[in-house]
């Protein structure tokens, strides 16, 4: 089934990469659009006047999220900044955004959904864009961008189609409790 929407955008700060531990996920403003582009680099080895081998590597994942708003507390979370005593956020060239995971869902026309988590990315402050109001007006919403990477064990994304007969109901209902971690397999 085709997807027909985008909703439930969450972010969780990565607190310990070696154990894939995250702070509690925070629901962000309603999502309008998400563009996630994995970038793959391919190298080809040539010998005897022909291609004899290829290797592919994930070089990063570009993420752009258009949201209804970027509340100050979400800006602080994603950009790693803090409001001062006057309630003002001052962006500084030395600011360091934390690594975060993002989670969201894509509803499908049959009522099921596709669930996604991307494990490790850093967001950049959004550009400021505005248009004056004339005889008519349009909503102006921020777009935030990030570059995501794989975590130490190589995982970069997890996804689940709730229509899959193998989809674990407990995983589906707990999807936004924390970024998904597979259950360890008993020896």
- Low-pLDDT stretches are none
Give the helices and strands as they follow along the chain. EEEEEHEEEEH
Report the helical percentage.
Answer: under 10%
Structural class by secondary-structure content: mainly beta
Summarize model confidence as the mean pLDDT: 93
InterPro entries: Maj_tail_phi13
Protein name: Phage tail protein
Structure, explained:
It contains two helices and nine strands. The protein is mainly β and 187 residues long. The chain has one domain. The mean pLDDT is 93.
Task: Give the topology.
Blueprint: E1 7-16, E2 21-22, E3 26-27, E4 31-47, E5 50-67, H1 72-79, E6 100-107, E7 113-124, E8 143-149, E9 157-161, H2 169-173
Antiparallel strand pairs: 1-2, 1-3, 1-6, 4-5, 5-8, 6-7, 7-8, 7-9
Outline of this structure?
With 187 residues, the chain is mainly beta. The chain contains two helices and nine strands, in the order βββββαββββα. It starts with 6 loop residues before the first strand and ends in a 14-residue tail after the last helix.
């Amino acid at each position: 089934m085709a997807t027909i929407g985008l909703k439930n955008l969450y972010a969780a700060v990565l607190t310990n990469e070696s154990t894939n531990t995250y702070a509690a996920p925070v629901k962000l403003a309603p999502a309008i659009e998400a563009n996630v582009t994995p970038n793959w680099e391919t190298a080809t080895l040539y010998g005897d006047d022909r291609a004899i081998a290829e290797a592919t590597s994930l070089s990063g994942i570009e993420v752009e999220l258009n949201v209804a708003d970027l509340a100050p507390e979400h800006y602080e979370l994603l950009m790693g900044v803090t409001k001062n005593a006057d309630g003002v956020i001052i962006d500084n060239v030395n600011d360091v955004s934390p690594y975060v995971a993002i989670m969201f869902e894509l509803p499908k026309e049959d009522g099921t959904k596709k669930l996604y988590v991307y494990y490790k990315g850093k967001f950049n402050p959004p550009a400021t864009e505005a248009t004056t109001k004339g005889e008519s007006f349009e909503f102006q919403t921020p777009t935030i961008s990030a570059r995501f990477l794989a975590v130490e064990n190589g995982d970069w994304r997890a996804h689940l189609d709730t229509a899959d007969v193998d989809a674990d109901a407990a995983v589906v209902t707990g999807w936004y409790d924390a970024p998904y971690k597979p259950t360890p397999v008993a020896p």
